[in-house]
Amino acid sequence: MVNIATDTVPDSERRGLIGALPAPLRPYASLMRLDRPIGTWLLFWPCAWSVALAGVGSRWSLFGWFLLGAFAMRSAGCAYNDLVDRDLDRQVERTRLRPLASKRISLRSAWTLIALLCGLGLVVLLQLEPAAQLVALASIALVAAYPFMKRITWWPQAWLGLVFSWGALVGWPAVTGSLAWPPLLLWLGTVFWVLGYDTLYAVQDKEDDALVGVKSTARLFGSRAPTMVGLFYAFAVAGWAGAVWLVRPDWLALIALVPAALHLTSQSLRADPANGELALALFRSNRFTGLLLFLAMLVVGLSAR
C-alpha cells in the first residue's frame, strides 16, 4: 500500500463501519464499498426474485448463497471498475479520493483483492445446478466490458442493466435445472428497472461527466430524465407481469405487483433532473422496490406449486 498524506483520505474512512476497521484495511474496504451495501442488494434481488418465482423447491439456502455471491461479485466489480477508471476518477470531485485514484492501494493489491473475491464467488457458483453455473459464467464478458461503455455509448446504463439483472436468469435454473420463458421475461423487465434507477444515479454526476467527457443517459435525456425513468419502469413492470402470468395465468396474481409498481411510479413523479441529492435518495430506495417484488414473486411462486 502506498503511503500518502492524510488529506487524501476521505471522511467515509474515518467513521462508521470502515472507520472501525484497522487503518491498513480501510482502503480495501472502501474499494469494496463496504459502507454502501445498496449495490449488493440491487445485484441480489433479481436472483431472489427468480428463485422465488420458480417456487424455491426445497432449496431455501439458495437465498443465502446468492446474497453471499452478490456481495462478493459486487465488491469485485467495484474494484475492477475503479481499476479501469482510476485516471477518470482523479478528475471528478466525488471520486478523486477513491483508493486507486489517490494511489493509496497499488494495482497489484487491487488485482489480488479481486482474485480473492472471485474465489468466494466460485464457492457460491459450485453450489448451483450445472445449468445455472453455465448461465452465470456467460455474464463474464458483459461484466468485463461494462466500465468501458461510458466512453463509447450514451447508454452505459443499459449495459449495466444487462449485467445487474443477470441473476434473474440464474435463479430459476438453480431451482429447476433449466431455463424457461418466465425467467427470460423477468430478466427483460429487470433490465429496464436497472436502466431506470441507474439513470437516476447518473443525475448526480452530470456536470462532472460532462467535464471529463463521460456519457450517460442522464446527460442524454437532460430535463426529460424523469419521464424516461417512468417509461423504463413501465416496461419493467410489463416484463415482470409477463413472467408472473406464465407461472400463474390469473389476474389476481398480477395484483401482487401493484405495491412495487406504485413505488416505482412515485420515484419517477418525484425525480428532478436538477436535484442530484434527491436522485441519489430515489436510487437508493430501490432496495425497497426489490423487497416488494420479492414478496410478490414468492407469493406467486409458492401458490403455483
Please tell me about this protein's structure.
Helix 4 (61-89) runs parallel beside helix 7 (140-152) and helix 10 (181-203) runs antiparallel to helix 16 (276-284). The longest helix has 29 residues, at 61-89. The protein is mainly alpha-helical. It has helices spanning 16-19, 26-31, 38-53, 61-89, 107-125, 130-137, 140-152, 156-164, 167-176, 181-203, 206-212, 217-221, 225-247, 251-254, 258-270, 276-284, 286-303. The chain is globular and about 55 Å long. The protein has one domain: Tetracycline Repressor, domain 2 (Orthogonal Bundle). The protein has 17 helices and no strands. Helices cover 71% and strands 0% of the residues.
Short description:
This protein has 305 residues and is an all-alpha fold.
Biggest sheet statistics: none
The general outline is: globular
Assign the CATH class.
Answer: Mainly Alpha
Approximate helicity band = over 70%
Q: From the alpha-carbon coordinates, what is the Rg to the nearest angstrom? A: 19 Å
Number of domains: 1
> How do the helices and strands follow one another from N- to C-terminus?
HHHHHHHHHHHHHHHHH
Percent range for β-strand residues: under 5%
Number of strands: 0
CATH topology: Tetracycline Repressor, domain 2
Q: Distance between termini?
A: 53 Å
pLDDT under 50 segments (min length 5)? 1-6
Structural classification: mainly alpha
| Average predicted confidence as pLDDT | 93
Number of helical stretches of at least 4 residues: 17
CATH architecture: Orthogonal Bundle
- Could you state the CATH homologous superfamily? UbiA prenyltransferase
